From TrEMBL:
Gene3D superfamilies: Aspartate Aminotransferase, domain 1 (3.90.1150.10), Type I PLP-dependent aspartate aminotransferase-like (Major domain) (3.40.640.10). This is Aspartate aminotransferase family protein. Belongs to the class-III pyridoxal-phosphate-dependent aminotransferase family. It comes from Siminovitchia terrae (Bacillus terrae). The lineage of its organism: Bacteria, Bacillati, Bacillota, Bacilli, Bacillales. GO terms for molecular function: pyridoxal phosphate binding; transaminase activity. Keywords: Aminotransferase, Pyridoxal phosphate, Transferase. It holds the Pfam family Aminotran_3. PANTHER family: AMINOTRANSFERASE (PTHR43094), AMINOTRANSFERASE CLASS-III (PTHR43094:SF1).
Length: 456
């Protein structure tokens, strides 16, 4: 690091420690050591920090920078909109061209008749809004008791009071001891149970068993991520999402797909549900909707839900200052154009196969690597003492160690180790990644695993 950069880094680091409480960060540690990295610029799959080091962004930051870093067209789209009208509201029936054009475009790329959107500024807001719209829909239909939301263990749906409760990861779910009590977690991916096999030894705790216990007249919606992300990249078994769809139909309950990670090409199709030909009632989106360049989210709903809201003759008391933000929508529109024009979703599918080949190689090479899995460019693997026997590392922080070793080699990837014995590593590079770059990522992970192996 140059002397000038070092002085600036030290200044910013001191100010950061003093003035910012960081999300998903250890506050005590942060107050002692300050920021690990201060990013300066980005290009493609690479990020440069103030020290002049260049890192491969192997997780697209928070699995959201789908088109990669430094895309000037997105900046230009923002500039163009900002210099016309940076912000106008969509309250009181006001509108703006960018939000209309994006809504029309999204209606075209979503499955089935998911043709109307309620705009938000992020993922938590989208899921929170979907819960409220679902409950409010049932209110309008005269079914005022349908309030319960069922989500899955290991699911991650955000950090608002409602979405933290839907999240099935205890650290988040229990934080601050609050949370909407009308939200319960079911066991994840119990396909047979959801199809109706009540003799299954694990039936208790399935979505179906909760509906049975509570009564369908009390349940508003089921929310699932097509592929669970922060819970550890869990791809559902074949038939699972279709079983949930059928269950929701059987009991007249909404199915909400949390596509906040999966949406906009991450899994090699536009939406995660597209892999299983499932049409949910609501799709919640954010992240890849603008590739993270600006904050934008939305709840996309089926026409019948939209039409039910059209019968509501009063002011809809919900909305965010930034719902339908013109600059965010202009960026969202350009982002979708780039995804399609540059074939990035097809690239995600093809590069996903390369990534999985690399992971298979690592699984063969290291006895402690298991359950490598992926869809498109959403991938993960377990680190276990004995994956075949399902024996975890009891005390060793394997995922954190491997991720740290990768970091030393200038690759950013993510550990998931919320519960004892959980050691999952996630890889999710931008959708523009090329074959030689995937090989580089695998080579670095290989070295990091080798370094970890030496500590055993
Ligand atoms: C699947 C999923 N849902 C919801 C959220 C919450 O989104 P946000 O952090 O934008 O509120 C996230 C964030 O990581 C997510 O991965």
């Amino acid at each position: 690091m140059s002397q000038q950069n070092e002085a600036l880094f030290n200044e910013l680091s001191g100010l950061d420690k003093k003035h910012i409480i960081h999300p998903s960060t250890n506050p005590k540690l942060h107050s002692e050591i300050g920021p690990k990295l201060i990013f300066e610029s980005g290009e493609g799959i690479y990020l440069k920090d103030m020290g002049g080091k260049t890192y491969i962004d192997g997780v697209s930051m928070l699995w959201n920078v789908n088109v990669g870093h430094g895309v000037k067209e997105l900046a230009e789209a923002a500039y163009e909109q900002m210099t016309k009208a940076a912000y106008t509201t969509t309250f009181y029936g006001y509108s703006n061209e960018a939000s209309v054009r994006l809504a029309e475009k999204i209606a075209k790329v979503t499955p089935g008749d998911l043709n109307a959107i309620f705009y938000t500024s992020g993922g938590s807001e989208s899921n929170d809004t979907a819960f409220k719209l679902s409950r409010s829909y049932w209110d309008i239909k005269g079914k005022k008791d349908k309030k319960l939301i069922i989500s899955l263990r290991r699911g991650y749906h955000g950090v608002t009071i409602a979405t933290q409760r839907a999240t099935g990861i205890d650290a988040y779910r229990e934080f601050s001891g609050s949370g909407d009590p009308n939200i319960v977690n079911a066991k994840p991916h119990m396909t047979e149970c959801e199809l109706g096999d009540k003799s299954h030894p694990e039936y208790e705790g399935s979505i179906r068993s909760i509906i049975e216990r509570e009564g369908a007249d009390k349940v508003a919606a089921v929310i699932v991520e097509p592929i669970q992300g922060a819970g550890g990249v869990h791809v559902p078994p074949e038939g699972y999402l279709k079983a949930v769809r059928a269950l929701c139909d059987e009991f007249d309950i909404h199915m909400i797909a949390d596509e906040i990670i999966c949406g906009f090409g991450r899994t090699g199709k536009m939406f995660g549900v597209d892999h299983w030909d499932v049409v949910p009632d609501f799709i919640c989106a954010a992240k890849g909707m603008t590739s993270g360049y600006v904050q934008l989210g939305g709840v996309i709903m089926r026409e019948e839900i939209r039409d039910t809201f059209f019968t509501y003759d009063g002011m809809l008391p919900h909305g965010f200052t930034y719902s339908g933000h013109p600059t965010a929508c202009a960026v969202g529109l350009k982002n979708l154009e780039i995804l399609e024009r540059d074939g990035l979703i097809e690239n995600a599918a093809a590069m996903g196969e390369e990534l999985q080949k690399g992971l298979n190689y690592l699984e063969d090479k290291y006895s402690f690597v298991g359950n490598t899995r992926s869809r498109g460019l959403l991938a993960g693997f377990d680190l276990m003492e004995d994956p075949a026997a399902g024996k975890p590392f009891e005390t060793i922080k394997a995922a954190a160690t491997v991720v740290e070793e990768a970091y030393k080699r200038e690759l950013l990837i993510r550990p998931f180790d919320f519960t004892p014995g959980m050691n999952i590593v996630a890889i999710a590079p931008p959708l523009i990644v090329q074959k030689d770059e995937v090989e580089k990522i695998i080579a670095i992970v290989d070295d990091a695993l080798g370094a970890f192996a030496k500590t055993l």
